[in-house]
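Predict structure. Chain length: 56.
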Amino acid sequence: MFHWALIFLVVAFIAGIFGFGGIASASAGIAQVLFVIFMVLFLVALVARAFNRTHW
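Prediction complete.
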């Protein structure tokens, strides 16, 4: 998932450099959403792993 966020971020930068504002803003928005989803899933995995260790 983080890989896709980086891809959309690069597409947004390239589109912004060449002046495609609509594509750049859409790609940046998608990258932000994917990054937030990645971070939430990462934090959930950390919490789940922490709770799993305490039960041993």
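Summary: The mean pLDDT is 84.
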